[in-house]
Amino acid sequence: MSSSSSSFSVRFASPLLPSPAAATSASPKTWRVHATTPTVAPVTTSSAPEVDAERLEPRVEERDGYFVLKEKFRKGINPQEKVKIEKEPMKLFMENGIEDLAKLSMEEIDQAKNTKDDIDVRLKWLGLFHRRKHHYGRFMMRLKLPNGVTTSEQTRYLASVIKKYGKDGCADVTTRQNWQIRGVVLPDVPEILKGLAQVGLTSLQSGMDNVRNPVGNPLAGIDPEEIVDTRPYTNLLSHFITANAQGNPTVTNLPRKWNVCVVGSHDLYEHPHINDLAYMPATKDGRFGFNLLVGGFFSPKRCAEAIPLDAWVAADDVIPVCKAVLEAYRDLGSRGNRQKTRMMWLIDELGIEGFRAEVVRRMPGQELDRASSEDLVQRQWDRRDYLGVHPQKQEGFNYVGLHIPVGRVQAGDMDELARLADAYGSGELRLTVEQNIIIPNVDNSKLEALLKEPLLEKFSPQPSILMKGLVACTGNQFCGQAIIETKARALKVTEEVERLVDVTKPVRMHWTGCPNSCAQVQVADIGFMGCMTRDEDGKTCEGADVFLGGRIGSDSHLGDIYKKGVPCKDLVPLVADILVEHFGAVVREREEAED
C-alpha cells in the first residue's frame, strides 16, 4: 500500500443467510474510500500551545521502503527501538526471512543476539510471541480478525494447527475480538502462514508497535437496533493497515501499540473510550460519518480515557483520517521510556489542538471538519445482553450468544463450534471483546435442536450472572509477564463466591495477571490485577490489587484501586463483601450455601 495512495477498494461478502430470499441482499459489495477534500476552511492553530518547530520535525524517514528512526533522534531511545534499528522486523515477512529463521534450531538461534532478538522481539511483527519464560521454544500466534467475524473453515484450520501440539495447543478469544493460538513451534511457522492465507486469515502486524485488531459491533448487520454496520469499515481498516495482508511498512514502526474501533451500537460493545482512535457515528449536513475520539489506553503507569479530537469525517474518509493520525503518531511520538510512548502522551505534549493540527497537515487537502453535534449514539441506553437467543433484523433468523468461560477453547471445541455454525447458521462465528462467541443466522426452525447440542452444556447461552461477566487474561500459565495465574483462578473464585452470595444483577469481573492490564480491569465493575504480596504470616504469596467502579457505555469511567495487595486465598470473602455492599447481593443461608 503506497503511502501516497488516495483511494482503494475492498470487496467482501456479507454473510449469506441460508434462504433464497436472502440471496440478493447478501451479494458481494464493493466499498470504496476516496481521499476527498471536505469543503471547509483550513483549521487554524491559534489556540494550540506553543511548540518548538524542531519538535514538529518527523523523527522517522523512509529508507528502501521502510520507515526508520533518524540518527539525530536516537539518543535515549528504549531497547525495543534499538532492536528495530539493528534489523527491520518486517523483513522477516516481506523479504521472507522467516523461511531461513525457521530452519535454525533453538540452540543455534540463542547463540547470536540478532537471531535471539528475531524470535523474542521481531517475530511479534508476524504475530508470533515466544514463550521463553514458561514454554521455551513454543509460540503464541495472534491473528487479525476485523470485527471478530470468522468462518467455520477458518476455525477448523486453526483447530488443525493446535491439535498437533497436544496439551501445549489451545486457543483463546481475546479482549479485541480476536483469536490467539498456542503451542506453535518455529519450524511449522512458514506452512502455518501459508495455511492462514489460504483460508483468508493473517497474523501480520498484530503485536508490538503495530495497529491491533480493528474492533466493531459483534452484532453488525444483524442487530435490529444497530446504528451502522461496522464490518465494511473494520475490514477497510484492516486491509489498509496490512496492505491486504502483504505488509504495510508505512505504519509498522510506531512508538508503541495502537488500538482502533468503529462504533455501530448504542450499547458501545466496542469500548471506544479505551482505544487510541474511535469512530463515533454522527451526521453532519445530511451526510453520515463519524466524530473522532483519540488517546484511550491502559499501561502499568497510567490509564486514560479517549478524548474528543473535535473532528468529523464523512464515511468515505475513514481511511485517510486513520492514516493521518497514525502518521502524526509515527512521526512525532516519543521513543524513550516505554511507559510514556502511547499516543496520549504525545497529545498531552502538543495539546489537543496542536495534535489536531498535525493530523490536519497529513490529511488530503490539509482540511478536516470540526466535530458534529448530531451524535447518533443514544446516551440513555441500557446495555443489552447478547448472550442467549435473540431475533435478528432478518425475519425468521436469530443469533445465539455462547459464554466461553474465560475465553479458553481446545481444538475439539473449535471443530464443534465450526460444525454448529455450518449445521445451524451460515458458517459464520462472531467473537466479542468479553471473550464470548456468537452464532448468527440461525433459522427459527433450527433453534430447538441447536440448544440441545452437547457443546452448549460447556459453552452455555445462559450462564450464571457472575460467570457471564467474567474476563481473564492469559495469566502465568503461558505469559511470561503475568505475575499470577488468572484463568483457572477466576473461575474458581467466582464459583466459590456464588456459593456465598446471591447476585441479582450483572456484575463484570475482570482478571489480569500484571499491570499491563490486557484484561482491562479498569473498565470492570470489580477488577483484579496480579501482584506479589504477603500473607498474615509475612510470607510472600500471589495476590491481587482490587479495583472497583469501572463503567462501560455512554457514562464510561475507569475504576479506582479499592484494596491493594490482597492474598489470592483471601479474595473470596472480600469479593462476597463487595458484592453485598456495592451491588445488592444477598448472603445465602448456610444450608443453601452447603447445598
UniProtKB/TrEMBL annotation:
PANTHER family named in the record: FERREDOXIN--NITRITE REDUCTASE, CHLOROPLASTIC
Gene Ontology MF terms in the entry: 4 iron, 4 sulfur cluster binding; ferredoxin-nitrite reductase activity; heme binding; metal ion binding
GO biological processes: nitrate assimilation
Signal peptide (from-to): none
Main enzyme class: oxidoreductase
Lineage: Eukaryota, Viridiplantae, Streptophyta, Embryophyta, Tracheophyta
Keywords: 4Fe-4S, Heme, Iron, Iron-sulfur, Metal-binding, Nitrate assimilation, Oxidoreductase
Species name: Citrus clementina (Clementine)
Residues annotated as domain Nitrite/sulphite reductase 4Fe-4S: 208-364, 470-579
Enzyme Commission identifier(s): 1.7.7.1
Protein name, per record: Ferredoxin--nitrite reductase, chloroplastic
Recorded catalytic activity of this chain's protein: 6 oxidized [2Fe-2S]-[ferredoxin] + NH4(+) + 2 H2O = nitrite + 6 reduced [2Fe-2S]-[ferredoxin] + 8 H(+)
Domain Nitrite/Sulfite reductase ferredoxin-like positions: 132-198, 390-454
Functional pathway: Nitrogen metabolism; nitrate reduction (assimilation)
Superkingdom of source: Eukaryota
Cofactors named for this entry: siroheme; [4Fe-4S] cluster
